[in-house]
Amino acid sequence: MKRNDVGDLLKQMSQMRKKMDRVQGELKERYVEASVGDGRVRATLNGQQEIVKLSIDPELVKPDEDGEVDISMLEDLVIAAINQGVERSKALMNDEMDKASGGLFQGMGFF
Asked: Checking phi first, is residue 39 left (phi over 0); if not, alpha (psi -120 to 50) or beta?
């Protein structure tokens, strides 16, 4: 490899790194939402897999005729919404990082 080729390659890598850093910052302001239980539990995450909002339908925490609240079901719904949101957030991040890298890491799951 010629010296100029190495210099060009390093310059391209530096530019790609800057793009990827910029995209990482932008992902903090991009959001995905996941809902489960017919929309009764919703999780909103940003593109960096941070939970920014969790909504629970008040009907889910009302006691039934026995005065009980089904905490186990509520916990399962919250976990499902968060897991679904994380998957969507990861997909968003992977798509955006693939674009920033020109598809260099596409399908490799680095991000």
From this structure: left
